[in-house]
Design goal:
21 strands, alpha/beta, 5-stranded mixed β-sheet
């Protein structure tokens, strides 16, 4: 399944395909772990269900079309039953594809769009490919497809994507436009939509608009879809196998395309010599026919002779260079064949023993026929993702230590020491290319002791051979080191190599560019390399580049060795051995480490829970003990203070000081905030009563101003409602004017019509002439028709042309017939006698007699028919013939008699033919009697009838004259249609009938009177509208005045500062709940007492806590509480860690999943590496992997396999993993890979390598085995590959000598890389990074714009680029509006006011709401290409078809805003809380310093003498008196200030009242002036209206005159057109008649000629004149006695 979007070209589809694959990989858990192949099955299942829905709506013919389309699309057969089954469950609801539901779980709209557009394109291609626009059901199928996906777009909320798809697929903007275009195409064909149920389709779309809900779908549903699609495909495969009759060699040719050169029978074997389709390879396919292999294999001589004969035949085919493969085909009798003996024999060519299926796979290429969908996900990524959430990623890499667990539980992170590379998110171009092939290697500085050649240039196939220790492996490790900055074998021994600039590796990228890799570059960019090549997301994960390289690009011989020699088939061993094989030993080590940490956290979790439980129990015990302990100490100052403060509930306080004073302190702390509020507003000198009075006065004024403002607002609303009513009246008047104007137009039309009618009906004589001409024309056409009917009967015409129309009587006719028969009989007798008599003469005499007989017949003129001599006259020639030929008198008599008889026969036949003509004509005339009346009228007066027929020309001439007269009259307006229309007007026109019933005077006067009345109504309506508009203007002026008053009230309300007043009131109310506040008490004094008591309580509580009797228990309680406080977060962190480890999937699950998902591919490689039929398949179950033997279907576990067989499993897994990484470097490093395999297995592996090389894989192969070297050379020499060999020769105390040689004469890899250019990797890396950065949301618009600009720049420079993969979903219309526009639209969408009053109230904050509505409509025109708000009515409203979508956008916008506002509010509260905490910290620090100072002062005060205290008391008394005096002064000051304020307010009130009266006076004067101006304007308007009416009358008269002239011209043109059409019709009729007459005439002539020819033939047979039937005279020059024409036939 190839995914696509509505983009530009194949690049957009390629990127869409890539996005789907990446999403399935990165969000595997959310997508239930579905592979790409499984997801493709779900998409195909969706397509089948949608087509089944169409199928249920179609007739039998279109059902067949759907079945054929599906079979072509899916390459399946027998789809009818499948569709029938699915259609049984189809209903009228829109089927939401499971694939779209699955991707919708991610919340990523771009992937849902890709799947939607892919399915849309697939269904459209199937429905359009068989579209017959002349078939109604075929049209219904196409329209149904368009409607279905329109409805589906509403379900998925991707309407914009539907529009884009429609433009790309149908070149229309949507469903309605598409249907409209079809109607326009089929204007002449009313049957095209006979079966199209548009109402059903409209309902389908409307239901989807209103009900956009669909269930999320369960994992079971998706799995069922995958299973169902698999069953469908398996049924197809089984059916195809059952019906596939092609077998044998023909099947191999069909499946592979090889070409057979020759077929030869050699020693009883059927041998087919063939060549490959696209290469030089030759194949000899041998079938066992009369001889079986087992019959001769044991006889070396017979077997050798057969092979030699096979070789000779191959030589005869002139094949000396190409590689030859000899394939022996197994059949049912091929048991006990020594396959290994045959395949190991390399004489004359490479030999194989295969079944037919294996032969097909071998010829097509092993890798080509394998699956392309292979997955091999790394467990490290999943483990890291789970542990990263809890900051435990170091559990994968660090060895276990108990202190590490404790540090984590104490709050430290246990993250791995990875590089957090966030810079990748901003990367525009990746520095890392996608490697195609390795070009060359510079080994300088890397193991110089191994190489004498510092630079090596490679081919596509590279063989390194030589003795062990000569440096072969070092070449591969140099490549590994340059690309990964590590060497696996060295790293396993914990040895680190320097990452400097050598070795240098030069590689080709996929665009034929050359790049250089060094260890330094690879180490610096290891994570980017891993991302680009192996798709590992960049993050905090440690780079595993070397492990992935050895996993996908190098055969890990160490892991393979462990797999072969160390497995015991236990579950742990199974996971370990395949873990080493598939993921490397590092991954296995990771699992061991985190498993150990998992056990430690589980144990620690149990211990911590026990410790927490014990601490909570002990804390509870100490709390209960302290609750019962008390003491009796008291503080006199505190008691005096709370009494002075009048603390409520003093009697209920605990008696013991240890509980009493903390309780008092808590009460004091509870109101501290409110005390601070009262202290912050300069109220210290006021009493509580004054403060309460000020608050009450402010509340009273606030209520007064608020009520006034409300009244003013209600007046404004009332004025707005009144204006709304007036505007409604204006609207009604406008509607009324429209009706008046229509009536006015109708009256004008009646006047024009009456002018025309009166002009026509007044010419009665002309009308009478027109009717007469019409009657005469009708009569002439009827007579011409009768004449035509007669002329169509040639017999009648010929009969009428006769001079005598009297026929023979019956007796006469019988007599002539009898005489004719006698004459014919007599002539035959005479001719017989003539022939008998002629025999008596000699041959020459007979010729002379015959010449005498026919001479005259041949003579046509005076020229002799024998010698050609020209005589003077014909008679002279006849005499000469008679005299020249001497004939016996008897013979002459016979000849004369024959000629006389022939002449008589001709005469009799003419008489009888004439009689036949008469009989036939009379019979036809009798038939025409009912059709042509003139025939009956004429009776037997045939001459009269002939004259009637011959009068045709005269009648046609008269017809032309009448037509000319009619044309002239039509041009004058007196056509029969106009006359009839005018007559009908006087009897049917409603206005005229009204006049006839009630009118007086003439009809023209009646119409003119009616016109004047209507014009007066129009003038009155205009006057009313002017009055209404004047009233609206007055109301608007009043409204403006009220708004200014409201503004003044709002200023007064703001001056009251009610927020502060409410805080003060709340503070007072709260204090009254705790203390009895005296009305006369001064706030400042009370606050001072409060702070004094508060401070003393804090000191007393501190003193009590220091007492030893309670301190110990409190200390223990505090310790246990501290333990609880410490252990609780540790337990929580430990619990999260345990939960995280429980989520960790084991390595065995990844191994099992990897093996299971790739088992078919691995099995295919494994089977190929063994003898044909040795193993049936490779599979996996809960016990591990196993093979099934082909002999007895026995399961063989890995521990039962041989070393070589285990090595083939390891190699199969390695090849499958290499194919799993499409972006990885396209080469394989194989270091001694086949050491444990036999020759046959080696050859089979080499075949696989060769097939992989054909798919552009570069091979690096090392071996020290001589046999292996020869087999490798034989496999790759004489091929099209760039094949190089490197021989390593060891030398004493010197580096090895490397001998390089190129084997095949073919293109180098440098030339080959230029043949296959792909996407520029910089662009690819850029797009992939943008996708990764935005993996949980749609790509931002600015990113795409930037990407498109760069892509266009690259395209301008000639570089191939990919287009953006996702089309941005159209922007939400709400997002295009500003705040005012959005709030006004909210009123219409969310509130939906039902009256203009309600609407005006809701939009009252926006006086310019009309302008805002216009702006909204302008933006809607740009966004929707139509307006969305109807502003023509008094109450604006949103159009119905836009309301649902706007509601949805409204909800989405405010849901999103709500979250943003909540976040903003939380941020603001957090900032306020931080500021508050900082203030409290400052206050507490200040309080602490103050308390320290006061403690010091108290200590000094305690050592002062009594005199000092008396002095202080005196000073306090004086201070109190001064304070009281100050309070009295302040009270007097406030009283005076209040009095001044009252006087000022009264003055302002008087002033405002005077201004109001002044304004009212000015307003009255203005109204008076306004009324005077209105009177003048009305007078002027009346005069203007009068002038306009006069001008209108003149203009109307002129217009009527022009209209009459135009009408007359139009009528003339219409008459001319009708006349022209009539003439053309008559001309066509005339031409048709002439053509028919001509055809009839030709037919008659042909018939007459045929009859004449037949008559001539009869005359010739009778030997008489062929022209008249007369007898001939003369001996040589025979002539007709009747017509005198000579005889001109033999």
């Amino acid at each position: 399944m190839k995914y696509c979007v509505s983009g530009k070209g194949k690049d957009a589809c390629k990127m869409a395909d890539y996005v789907v694959t990446k999403m399935l990989q990165e969000y595997s858990r959310q997508l239930f772990g579905f592979t790409r192949a499984e997801f493709d099955s779900i998409v195909e299942y969706d397509v089948l269900n949608i087509m089944a829905y169409y199928y249920s709506k179609m007739n039998a013919q279109q059902k067949a079309v759907i079945v054929n389309a599906l079979q072509e699309e899916f390459d399946l057969s027998y789809m009818a039953d499948t569709l029938e089954n699915l259609a049984m469950f189809a209903d009228d609801e829109v089927y939401v594809p499971l694939s779209c539901k699955l991707m919708d779980r991610l919340g990523d709209g771009r992937v849902t769009i890709i799947v939607y557009e892919t399915i849309f394109k697939c269904c459209t291609s199937m429905t359009k490919s068989h579209w017959n626009q002349n078939n109604s059901y075929s049209n219904y199928l196409v329209i149904l497809n368009v409607a279905f996906f329109h409805a589906l777009s509403y379900k998925l909320h991707i309407k914009g994507s539907y529009v884009n798809s429609m433009k790309a697929l149908y070149e229309q903007d949507g469903y309605d436009e598409f249907v409209e275009s079809l109607y326009k195409k089929h204007l002449d064909d009313i049957s095209w939509d006979m079966d199209v149920e548009l109402d059903v389709l409209d309902k389908l779309i409307d239901d989807s608009k209103t009900n956009t809900f669909f269930d999320e779908g369960t994992q079971e549903e998706y799995m069922d879809a995958v299973e169902a699609m698999g069953n469908i495909r398996r049924e197809h495969v089984n059916t195809v196998r059952e019906e596939d009759e092609t077998e044998g060699f023909a099947r191999i040719v069909q499946k592979t395309g090889i070409r057979e050169l020759q077929s030869v029978d050699i020693h009883g074997f059927e041998c087919h010599f063939c060549e490959a389709k696209y290469s030089d390879e030759k194949y000899i396919i041998v079938y066992q026919k009369d001889t079986h292999i087992r019959d001769i294999i044991d006889n070396e001589e017979e077997w050798g002779n057969f092979q030699r004969e096979l070789y000779r035949e191959d030589i005869r085919q002139d094949n000396s260079k190409s590689m030859v493969y000899i394939v022996y085909i197994l059949d049912d009798n091929s048991d006990n064949i020594p396959i290994q003996v045959i395949e190991s024999n390399k004489t004359y060519g490479r030999k194989y023993v295969f079944s037919e299926d294996e032969t097909i796979t071998f010829i097509n290429g092993i890798v080509k026929t394998s699956s392309a969908e292979i997955s091999a996900a790394s467990p490290v990524q999943e483990w890291d993702r789970i542990l990263r959430e809890e900051h435990l990623t170091a559990c994968l890499t660090e060895p276990y230590a108990a202190k590490k667990v404790e540090k984590y539980l104490n709050g430290q992170r246990f993250d791995a020491d990875y590089v957090h590379d966030d810079d990748y998110s901003t990367m525009k171009h990746s520095k890392v290319p996608q490697i195609k092939w390795v070009k060359s290697l510079e080994t300088t500085g890397f193991r110089d002791f191994c190489f004498d050649k510092k630079t090596m240039t490679f081919g596509q196939i590279n063989l390194f051979y030589g003795a062990n220790g000569s440096g072969k492996t070092s070449v591969l490790e140099a490549i590994e080191y340059a690309l990964t900055a590590e060497v696996r074998r060295v790293k396993d021994f914990k040895v680190k190599l320097p990452t400097d600039s050598f070795p240098k590796l030069h590689v080709y990228d996929t665009e034929a560019g050359v790049h250089t890799f060094t260890p330094g570059f690879s180490k610096k960019n290891n994570k980017e390399i891993e991302r680009v090549w192996y798709g590992v997301p960049v993050g905090r994960t440690k780079s595993n580049l070397n492990e992935n390289f050895n996993r996908f690009n190098a055969f890990d011989s160490e892991a393979a060795y462990k797999f072969i020699h160390e497995s015991d088939n236990s579950e742990d061993s199974f996971a370990s051995m395949f873990g080493n094989l598939m993921f490397g030993e590092t991954v296995v080590d990771h699992e061991k480490k985190w498993q150990r940490f998992k056990k430690a956290f589980n144990d620690r979790y149990t211990e911590l829970r026990s410790e927490l439980s014990d601490a909570r129990s002990m804390a509870q015990c100490y709390e209960e003990s302290l609750a019962h302990k008390t003491d009796n100490s008291t503080s006199e100052e505190i008691e005096t203070g709370i009494t002075a403060l009048r603390l409520i509930g003093r009697a209920r306080l605990p008696k013991g000081s240890s509980d009493r004073y903390p309780k008092i302190l808590d009460e004091m702390r509870a109101i501290r905030k409110y005390v601070d509020i009262l202290s912050a507003h300069n109220l210290e000198r006021m009493t509580f009563k004054v403060i309460a009075a000020q608050v009450a006065e402010a509340k009273k004024n606030n209520l007064l101003y608020t009520r006034r403002r409300k009244n003013k607002s209600e007046e404004i609303t009332s004025l707005a409602e009144e204006n709304g009513t007036i505007k409604k009246k204006i609207f009604d008047e406008r509607e009324k004017q429209t009706g008046i104007q229509q009536r006015l137009d109708r009256v004008n039309t009646d006047i024009r019509n009456w002018t025309i009618v009166q002009n026509v009906l007044s010419h009665e004589e002309t009308i009478k002439l027109v009717n007469n001409l019409l009657d005469e024309l009708t009569q002439i056409e009827r007579e011409l028709y009768h004449i035509l009917k007669i002329e169509q009967r040639p017999a009648i015409i010929n009969f009428l042309k006769l001079d005598d129309h009297q026929g023979l009587s019956g007796a006469e006719k019988q007599r002539y017939e009898a005489e004719l028969e006698d004459a014919k009989t007599r002539r035959r007798q005479v001719e017989n006698k003539y022939n008998e008599e002629k025999k008596a003469f000699g041959e020459k005499e007979q010729q002379s007699i015959e010449l005498r007989k026919i001479g005259k017949t041949l003579m046509t003129d005076a020229k002799c028919p024998l010698c050609g001599h020209e005589y003077d006259t014909t008679l002279q020639l006849i005499d000469i013939i008679d005299n020249a030929v001497v004939v016996d008198d008897k013979m002459d008599t016979l000849i004369t008699e024959i000629q006389e008889l022939s002449r008589r026969i001709m005469e009799l036949e003419k008489i009888l033919d004439r009689q036949k003509l008469i009989d036939r004509a009379k019979k036809e005339l009798l038939e025409l009697t009912d059709v042509v009346s003139i025939v009956g009228k004429c009776g037997s007066d045939y001459k009269k009838l002939y004259e009637y027929v011959t009068s045709k020309a005269e009648k046609e001439k008269r017809k032309e004259e009448i037509v000319e007269q009619q044309t002239a009259l039509d041009n004058q307006g007196f056509s029969i249609r106009n006359i009839n229309a005018c007559k009908e007007y006087t009897s049917t026109d409603s206005t005229y009938l009204e006049y006839k019933k009630n009118g007086k005077g003439t009809y023209a006067e009646f119409l003119q009177s009616k016109l004047q009345k209507i014009q007066m109504e129009l003038v009155l309506s205009e006057s009313a509208i002017a009055d209404y508009q004047k009233k609206i203007q007055q109301n608007e002026q009043k409204e403006e005045l009220l708004r200014s008053e409201i503004h003044s009230l709002e200023s007064q309300l703001e001056a009251l500062d009610m927020d502060i007043k409410r805080d003060i009131e709340q503070a007072l109310e709260t204090l009254k709940t705790k203390f009895e506040l005296p009305d006369a008490g001064v706030l400042g004094e009370w606050v001072s007492k409060y702070h004094a008591v508060y401070d003393k309580c804090e000191l007393e509580v501190e003193h009590l806590e220091a007492q030893n009797s309670i301190a110990l228990e409190r200390q223990m309680l505090a310790e246990y509480r501290a333990t609880i406080k410490k252990v609780e977060p540790m337990v929580e962190r430990c619990a999260r860690a345990v939960q995280a480890f429980e989520k960790m999937p084991s390595l065995s699950s990844f191994v099992e999943k990897g093996i299971r998902s790739n088992i078919q591919q691995i099995s295919k490689f494994f089977k190929w590496m063994h003898h044909s039929g040795e193993f049936e398949k490779l599979d996996i179950d809960d016990k591990g992997i196993y093979a099934v033997r082909g002999l007895n279907n026995q399961e063989v576990r890995t521990y039962e396999m041989s070393t070589g067989q285990r090595s083939t499993i390891a190699m199969s897994v390695m090849f499958a993993l290499h194919m799993a990484a499409p972006d990885a470097p396209q080469f394989l490093l194989l270091d001694e890979p086949l050491a444990t395999m036999d020759d046959t297995q080696v050859l089979n592996v080499l075949d696989i390598l060769k097939s992989m090389a054909e798919q552009n894989t570069q091979i690096f192969f090392t071996t020290a085995n001589g046999i292996m070297i020869n087999l490798f050379k034989e496999c790759f020499k004489n091929t099209a590959f760039d094949y190089k060999e490197y021989q390593f020769v060891k030398r004493v105390n010197r580096p090895s000598e490397i001998k390089e040689s190129s084997i095949n004469d073919t293109k180098s890899i440098e030339e080959l890389t230029l043949d296959d250019l792909t996407l520029d990797f910089h662009q690819f890396a850029q797009i992939r990074n943008i996708l990764r950065k935005n993996q949980e949301k749609l790509v931002a618009r600015e990113d795409w714009e930037e990407l498109l600009e760069e892509a266009e720049t690259a395209a301008g420079s000639g570089v191939q680029v990919q287009q953006p993969i996702i089309q941005t979903v159209p922007e939400n219309f709400y997002m295009t509006l500003d705040s005012d526009e959005r709030r006004v639209l909210d009123v219409l969408v969310a509130d939906q006011p039902e009256s203009i009053t309600e609407f005006v109230k809701l939009v009252s904050p926006f006086p310019n709401y009309k302008t805002i509505l216009e702006r909204i409509n302008e933006k809607a025109l740009d966004f929707y290409e139509e307006t969305i708000i109807n502003t023509d009515e008094m109450l604006p409203y949103v159009e119905e078809d836009c309301l649902d979508e706007l509601k949805e956008q409204h909800d989405d916008y405010y849901d999103k805003n709500k979250a943003d506002l909540m976040i903003e509010e939380r941020r603001r509260l957090a900032e306020e809380r931080s500021a508050q905490l900082a203030d409290e910290l400052k206050k507490s620090e200040s309080e602490r310093r103050r308390l320290e100072t006061e403690q010091r002062v108290a200590e000094e005060r305690r050592v002062l003498e009594e005199a000092e205290r008396a002095k202080v008391a005196e000073e306090q008394k004086r201070s109190e008196e001064e304070r009281l005096e100050k309070l009295r002064a302040d009270a007097e000051y406030r009283r005076k200030a209040e009095e001044e304020q009252r006087i000022r307010l009264e003055n302002e009130l008087k002033k405002s009242e005077e201004e109001r009266r002044k304004l009212e006076a000015e307003k009255r004067v203005a109204e008076k002036n306004y009324l005077a101006q209105e009177a003048r304007r009305e007078k002027e308007a009346e005069e203007q209206r009068f002038r306009m009416e006069e001008e209108l009358k003149k203009a109307e008269a002129t217009r009527q005159q022009l209209e009459a002239e135009r009408e007359k011209e139009a009528e003339l043109r219409r008459a001319e057109a009708e006349r022209r059409i009539q003439l053309e019709q008559e001309l066509r009729k005339t031409e048709e008649k002439s053509r028919q007459q001509e055809e009839q005439r030709r037919a008659e002539e042909e018939k007459i000629l045929q009859e004449a020819e037949q008559q001539k033939i009869r005359y010739k047979q009778m030997n008489v004149c062929q022209y008249c039937g007369g007898a001939f005279t003369g001996l040589f020059n025979k002539k007709c006695k009747v017509c005198g024409k000579p005889k001109d036939y033999a």
